[in-house]
Amino acid sequence: xxxxxxxxxxxxxxxxxxxxxxxxxxxxxxxxxxxxxxxxxxxxxxxxxxxxxxxxxxxxxxxxxxxxxxxxxxxxxxxxxxxxxxxxxxxxxxxxxxxxxxxx
Length: 104
Description:
With 104 residues, the protein is mostly helical. It has one domain (2-103). It has helices spanning 2-23, 29-49, 55-78, 84-103. It is flat and about 40 Å long.
């Protein structure tokens, strides 16, 4: 259950990171409320997950999920570059997340 909670926290981290783009510097009310709500819920779920998961592992997985998801959505939504080097680095992050899951 802790890993599922951590996954949800990571997905919410993606949500708030992408939401930052839509807040327009926190000048748009609805995107700002959704982004701040995602931030709070993401951190709360991370806190719940670290009750039973090692802190270092949980934090690294949480930020990894957020990083990979944000980069992928940046490519899809904002036409950010999808170079071989960027995709290779995403692969390394995914490998790190998988490794931490296997040993944690």
